Amino acid sequence: MYALNFYSPIVAEQLRSGRKTATIRLGDKAAKYKKGMIVQVLVGARFSPRDRVFDAVIDKVEVKTLGELSPREIEHDNPEIRRTEDMASFLSQLYNREVTPDDTVTVIRFLVSGGGSSCRKARANGGASRRTRSRR
Questions:
Q1: Do 54 and 125 contact (CB within 8 A), yes or no?
Q2: What is the pLDDT of residue 9?
Q3: Across-strand partners of 45?
Q4: pLDDT for residue 40
Q5: What residues contact residue 43 under an 8 Å CB cut-off, 6+ apart?
């Protein structure tokens, strides 16, 4: 089974609370992650054991440049960020290299697997509540 790994304990709380419903990864990851794929969402320090937060279903995978991201797409990854410039800075720290608006990124949207839309039900399954339909 594939996994989405996150390294920050802050992200773990965002995942559990349903505030983080996507991840923006540097590069084209469309060959690795496909819509409908079930993945484990894991949190823990790099090169250390990780804790399973929940299983998720990949809802959407889009490849584009960082500059093409909407504020909403950025917010789904990091609720504290909405601007492309701030996301470039965040990714630069994460990947230890300069990231520009011209860099290719993959937006991976996910839903808690088996949790439904009820907060109580999702938390009982070890996950977070979230809307099961995308707003357009």
A1: yes
A2: 81
A3: none
A4: 97
A5: 5, 6, 7, 8, 9, 11, 12, 15, 50, 51, 53
Q: All domains of the chain, ordered by start, with CATH?
A: 2-120 (3.10.400.10)
Dist. CA 40–CA 98, nearest whole Å:
29
Instruction: Name which of 26-30, 31-35, 44-48 the model is least confident about.
Output: 44-48
Q: What's the pLDDT at 116? A: 45
